[in-house]
Backbone:
């Protein structure tokens, strides 16, 4: 009878399971760092939102965003990360920040 491929990670050989476990521990640490860094970034942007609201500045600054995207794309390239992905991620984060700024401005 031919051997069937394992259905789940728990069916894999112990050495494969151990390697997977080791890599997943690193992934969990990196995900935790990402969450903490994002929390710090949002603490800063909340302060920016309050400053902008107090001084009646618009929530979005497209020129600043263009500079951030150009910089991040370069950083991504040197880090061998897909620049298009880095740009999408930054745009996703900034869209949420602008939503927060708008909420602060209305309050
Ligand atoms: O730098 C600002 O003016 C911000 O409001 C912060 C931020 C950002 O999240 O980086 C968000 C919105 C702006 O369009 C540009 C940048």
Residues:
């Amino acid at each position: 009878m031919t051997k069937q491929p394992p259905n789940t990670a728990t069916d894999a050989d112990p050495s494969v399971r151990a390697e997977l476990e080791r890599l997943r521990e690193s992934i969990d640490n990196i995900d935790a760092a990402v969450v903490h860094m994002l929390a710090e970034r949002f603490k800063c942007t909340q302060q920016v939102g309050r400053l902008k609201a107090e001084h009646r500045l618009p929530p979005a600054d497209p020129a600043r965003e263009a500079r951030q995207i150009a910089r991040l794309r370069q950083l991504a390239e040197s880090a061998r990360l897909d620049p298009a992905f880095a740009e999408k991620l930054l745009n996703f984060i900034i869209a949420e920040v602008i939503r927060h700024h708008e909420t602060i401005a209305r309050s």
Summary: The pocket of prephenic acid is lined by residues 45, 48, 60-61, 64-65, 68, 94, 97-98, 101 (CB under 6 Å). The chain has a mean pLDDT of 96. DSSP finds three helices and no strands in the chain. Residues 14-54 form the longest helix (41 residues).
